[in-house]
UniProtKB/TrEMBL annotation:
Transcription recorded as keyword: no
Name the record gives this protein: Integral membrane protein
The species this protein was found in: Actinoplanes sandaracinus
Segments passing through the bilayer: 54-73, 78-97, 109-129, 141-161, 186-205, 217-235, 250-271
UniProt KW DNA repair keyword: no
Lineage: Bacteria, Bacillati, Actinomycetota, Actinomycetes, Micromonosporales
Keywords: Membrane, Transmembrane, Transmembrane helix
C-alpha cells in the first residue's frame, strides 16, 4: 500500500502507542541478548580463556538483532515472523530446561520467554505494514541508542572490575583456588545503575509523542514496568541485587493484580481527561 501525500493510513491511538513501544522494547531486548556474549568475551580477554556460553545465546542475539533492524526499517512482516520464531525458540528452551536436572528454577528459565512474548505481542498489535514505526524526532533515536548501549555494554563492568586470580601455588590445593571475585556491593551497584539508566533513557526517547498518544503510551509503559518489577522480585536474584526472592508466588500474583488495577484505573481517567480536553479544543462552545 502506498502512502499518500497526507501521510500513512491513520491507526488508532492505542495502536500508535503500541507501535512506539514496540520500537523501544525490541531495541532494548536486542541489546540485552548481547550481554552474555559481551560478558563472556570480556572474561576471555583477561584470563585468556573463553567461558562457557549457553548454546542458545548466539541464536537469541542474532535473531533479535534481525527483528530490531526489521522494526526500525518498517519491515513488519519480517519482524513478525522473526519475533514469533524467537518465541518458539524460548518455548523450546523452557521445555528442555524444565525437563533436565540442572535444578534451575522455572521462573528463571521462563523469564526470557516472557520478555520475548511481550515484545512479540507489541509488534503484532502495532497496525498494518504501512505504518511508519518511528519515534518522535531524531533526538529520540540517539536517546534510544544510548539505552541500548548501556544495556549491552554494562555487561563489561563485572569482568573488568573484578579480580582474576591465577592457578594456586600448590597445584594439589585446588580447594582454595579462586578464579574470579567481585565485591557483592559492586555487582549490586552495576545492576541497579543499569536498570535505572536504561529506564530513564527509554522513557526519554518517547517523551516527544503527541499528547493523545502519550495518554495511552505511558499507562502501557507503567503496566509493563509493573509486570517486569513484580516478576523480577520472584526470581532467585531479583535485579541481581537481592540474594533471594523478595515475593512468594502468591504475593507476586496479589501485587500484580493490585498494581495493574491501579494503573488501569489511572490510565482510564487520564485518557478520558485528555480526550475531553482535545474535544473541547477542536469543538469550542458557541456562545
Amino acid at each position: 500500500m502506498a502512502w499518500s501525500d497526507a501521510g500513512p493510513p491513520r491507526l488508532s491511538r492505542w495502536q500508535e502507542a503500541a507501535a512506539v513501544l514496540a520500537v523501544v522494547v525490541t531495541v532494548v531486548l536486542a541489546a540485552r541478548q548481547w550481554r552474555p556474549l559481551i560478558e563472556a568475551g570480556s572474561f576471555a580477554a583477561r584470563p585468556g580463556e573463553w567461558p562457557l556460553v549457553a548454546p542458545h545465546a548466539w541464536p537469541r542475539a542474532a535473531g533479535w538483532t534481525v527483528i530490531c533492524v526489521a522494526v526500525l526499517l518498517r519491515r513488519r512482516t519480517v519482524a513478525l515472523l522473526g519475533a514469533w520464531t524467537a518465541v518458539l525458540l524460548e518455548i523450546v528452551v523452557v521445555t528442555v530446561g524444565a525437563g533436565d536436572n540442572s535444578g534451575a528454577p522455572l521462573d528463571l528459565i521462563a523469564w526470557p520467554l516472557l520478555l520475548a512474548l511481550t515484545a512479540t505481542l507489541l509488534v503484532s498489535v502495532s497496525g498494518d505494514a504501512a505504518h511508519p514505526w518511528v519515534l518522535p524526532g531524531r533526538h529520540a533515536y540517539g536517546t534510544l541508542a544510548a539505552a541500548a548501549a548501556v544495556t549491552a555494554l554494562t555487561a563489561l563492568a563485572i569482568p573488568l572490575l573484578g579480580d582474576h586470580y591465577g592457578p594456586p601455588a600448590d597445584p594439589a590445593d585446588v580447594g582454595r583456588h579462586v578464579a574470579f571475585d567481585v565485591p557483592s556491593n559492586l555487582a549490586r551497584l552495576v545492576a541497579g545503575a543499569t536498570f535505572v539508566s536504561v529506564l530513564v533513557l527509554a522513557v526519554a526517547s518517547v517523551s516527544g509523542v503527541r499528547r493523545d498518544v502519550a495518554a495511552r503510551l505511558y499507562p502501557l509503559v507503567a503496566a509493563g514496568l509493573a509486570g517486569f518489577v513484580v516478576a523480577q522480585l520472584g526470581l532467585p536474584r531479583p535485579f541481581n541485587v537481592w540474594d533471594g526472592p523478595v515475593l512468594s508466588p502468591s504475593a507476586q500474583a496479589v501485587t500484580l493484580v493490585i498494581a495493574l488495577s491501579l494503573i488501569a484505573a489511572a490510565g482510564f481517567l487520564w485518557v478520558r481527561s485528555m480526550d475531553r480536553s482535545a474535544h473541547r479544543s477542536t469543538h469550542p462552545a458557541v456562545s
